[in-house]
Amino acid sequence: MFKIDKFPEIKRAFHQHNRLSSIVYKADEKIRPDDEASKIPANEAFEKWDEFDQNEFALIIFNTFKDIKPKLYHHFMNYFSKWEEVFSETWEECDEDQINNLLGLVLEIGYGNYWLPNKYYDHKPLLGCLSAPRTHKKPCDI
Fold first, then answer.
1. Do the beta carbons of residue 5 and residue 106 sit within 8 Å?
2. How many angstroms separate the CA atoms of 96 and 98, rounded?
3. Judging by beta carbons within 10 Å of its beta carbon (0-12, 13-18, 19+), is residue 11 exposed, middle or buried?
4. Which of 11, 57, 107, 127 is the most exposed place for a label (fewest CB within 10 A)?
């Protein structure tokens, strides 16, 4: 899991992300079959959650790492990349794929293709139960 305690601003955003996701799941439980109106609160909650993640949470992650420019590991294709090869120089230039990759650096599962260097993660189970993803063991040559 991402070492969230070392980054207070990301930690606050992560808690907001989890709060909004909880609202979505609770609203989903109230959806009734053949009742389109019962879907409206869940859809609205999901839009707020997605808007926060895409516009605020990802921006906080971008601002945290844009000056550090850590090397990134593509965990599906098994190679390293430089920060500037993956992300735009400014937030305004980031596209949807880059935003999802930013979220994946912290959320790890279900978003993005890249991981930060191993020093940014511990091996605690995600959400208290899911095994942390395996990290790479190969040396970085960039």
1. no
2. 5
3. middle
4. 127
Are 10 and 61 in contact, with CB atoms under 8 Å apart?
yes
pTM: 0.84
At 44, which amino acid appears?
A: E
| Helices of type H across the chain | 8-29, 40-52, 58-65, 83-86, 96-107
- The residue with tokens 């601003």 is 9
Whole-number pLDDT of residue 133:
53
Buried b (16+ CB within 10 A) or exposed e, 116-137: beeebbeeeeeeeeeeeeeeee
In DSSP terms, 2 is beta-bridged to 121
Rounded CA gap, 2 and 11, in Å? 10
**Which amino acid, one-letter code, is at 12?**
R
Complete edge-to-edge strand list for the sheet that includes strand 114-115: 79-81, 72-74, 114-115
69-118, pLDDT tens digit by residue?
999 999 888 889 999 999 999 999 999 999 999 999 998 766 789 999 88
Q: Please compute the mean of the pLDDT values over residues 55-65 and round it to a whole number.
A: 98
